[in-house]
Amino acid sequence: MKLLSLLSAALIGSSAAFAPAPVNVQQRSSAMAPMSMSAADGEFYIDQNRRNLMNLILVGSAAVTIGGLAVPYVLFFLPPSSGGGEGGTPAKDALGNDLNMVEYLASKKPGDHSLAQGLKGDATYLIIKDDGSLETYGLNAVCTHLGCVVPWSAANNKFMCPCHGSQYAPTGAVVRGPAPLPLALAHIETDPDSGTILFNTWSETDFRTEGKPWWM
Questions:
Q1: Is 29 exposed, middle or buried (0-12, 13-18, 19+ CB in 10 A)?
Q2: Of all helices (H) and strands (E), which one includes residue 14?
């Protein structure tokens, strides 16, 4: 009996040790009141300067994003500029040097067909006429079939593409397929101040087809 009494007392004591402490509801409510009032006060406080700053940041970010997307889209529909000084693109040699008209003619023979860097960086033929002067137009050397560079064959007096057999007359007109279109034309002029050979976009009627230029 004494053993049972001791065990009962031990169990009662351990359960009392883990029992929750009594809470003073009035004291807890008074402690939380200031915090609740502070939170309530904060809800009605608006920092106008901070709001304006955040609005500016938001609008600025949106403008940058929209501008970044819109500029390339607009430029896509603008016609490409011919570039260069005096409204033309300087003809350049393989080293990137501007070609001077007087020096170029002095270094070439009649009938010469040499390549220069032309409009948009495309390889373009400069043609020396029989009288030793420079032809008033250049011919883009890119084949209109699949884009190979077409060499000039002096022995055959025509341009002959090694890729798929297309052939072009000295004027760049197609004489044998599969090329569907003639070689693109470019005007050739001379800068009056520097004497540099200039390429300009050919935008009028193609004299070989009597039609609108296909490259425009």
A1: exposed
A2: helix 2-17
Q: What is the tens place of the pLDDT at every residue in 5-29?
A: 544 554 455 444 444 445 454 544 4
- Letter for the amino acid at 52? N
Q: What is the pTM of this model?
A: 0.61
Neighbours of 131 (CB within 10 A): 6
Q: Using an 8 Å Cβ cutoff, are 212 and 205 in contact?
A: yes
Rounded CA-CA distance 34/110 in Å is 101
Please name the residue that has the structure tokens 């501008």: 67
- Tens digits of per-residue pLDDT, 140-153? 999 999 999 999 99
Residues 6+ apart with CB under 8 A from 205: 211, 212, 213
Residue 132 near residue 102, CB atoms below 8 Å: no
The span from the first CA to the last CA of the chain, in angstroms, equals: 115
**Whole-number Å distance between alpha carbons of 183 and 122:** 12
